[in-house]
Amino acid sequence: MTPVQEPAAFPPLIKGAEFDLMIDKVAFGGKALGRVNGLVVFVDRAVPGQKVRVRVTRTKKHFAEARVVRILTQSPAYAPPFCPHFGLCGGCQWQDFAYEEQLRWKRLHVQESLQHLAGLQPGMILPTVPSPETRYYRNKMEFAFAPGPWQPATQPAAGKGSRERGCALGLHVRFSAEGIFNLEHCFLQSTQTPAIVQEVRRWCGASGLPAYNTKNHRGFWRFLVLREGKRTAQTLVQIITTDQGDPQAVEALGRHLQAHFPGFTTMVHSRSVKKAQVASGEVSRTLWGPGYIEERLGRLHLRISAHSFLQTNTYAAAGLYDAVSRLGEFNGRETVWDLYCGAGSIGLSLASRVRQVVGFELVEQAVADAYTNSRLNGIGNCRFLAGDLKERMREVLRTGSQPLPEVVITDPPRAGMHPRVAQALRELSPRRIIYVSCNPATLARDLALLKDGYEVLAVQPFDLFPHTSHIECVVRLEKRDKERKRGHGLNP
Known about the structure:
CATH 2.40.50.140; Rossmann fold; seven-stranded mixed sheet; single chain; CATH 2.40.50.1070; disordered N terminus
């Protein structure tokens, strides 16, 4: 095959320069990548295999950033995006990739991360398991308020823009850290979602109370969070506000939504005084309904409240839980610790295959939900501990208040395990660890911390987030022979 010939000379890589570029790959994080005279150029909204005309928007010592001016040669991997907001929305960045290509690149990103940081060989990473549904697959979505919708400037790729006056409610703009656009269409949660967002935006805009401003930290309306039971058709509406307004306005909004969407199950009002843009509150109250929704996951009947964690893709989560069980190779005699257990769904799904499960979780409401879910399913061999993991694990190791595990399951947030949790895990020395990760980079970092004592035997990627660059993994680690002799002696 004749290699592509690059032009003899390129214009200087300064802001505003234009040139033709072959797109070689997509980098971790989702941006496309090409090279000019050995220098990496990251390109927004491009597909591997395309030849594009680009304009430089930013330059650094070792790389440049650019945006596509026009497509010169189309790629076989291209697929027409199906959402009108594509390109503006910061969510589904890979809608213009054929789904099979998405799965291939996600596996490659896992492979690159684990090879570079943890020294794993490519053969350990299995093919990505596709999501059973690629549209309307999410059971939870978060929408942010802003004083007005983001408006593009002359060159939107530069991330500049202005806000109209009024109340905006929607998702983050792709190229702006703070910009929010008014959502009118979405193919992620359900066909009802855009209508709910539009009605909440209209009502709150007419309420006389301002939306929260991230610059001066003033305003009332902050977030709208929607949770749906995919197999129960139940809906939880959560409104998050500051304390700079009248709580009765939220009650009035609740009555309005009840009248317009009679299928709603419950509504929760949470208040947050923190400046961080995180869709949670320090204080919550249930306005109507039970304050939770129910969901079925495999044979489990789950109760999920506003602050509980559940894998966002209900349809794909069942396959992920099966992989945890399969890779765990349980014999029925194990004590299992379930770290970052949320509402207990993973541990409960394994309860019939092991002796007992001990779950650890920071959020007290999630622990309450886990106990409720245990009772709902008639499961009596699970217990759950609330508190900071690094402190609770230390306490248990020091006092012996809980049985020590043969197997540990850890499902940390995107930031990965705290170093002190990883250290406690090394001291705990279970014979097997099943690591569930939503971030290959922090997964690789944590595996590197554990590699002296543990060998990685399998890595199974799961696509829980179609049309995005995000990827979930289930990893099996086994204690190395020399370390196995140093364990706590409770192995069966």
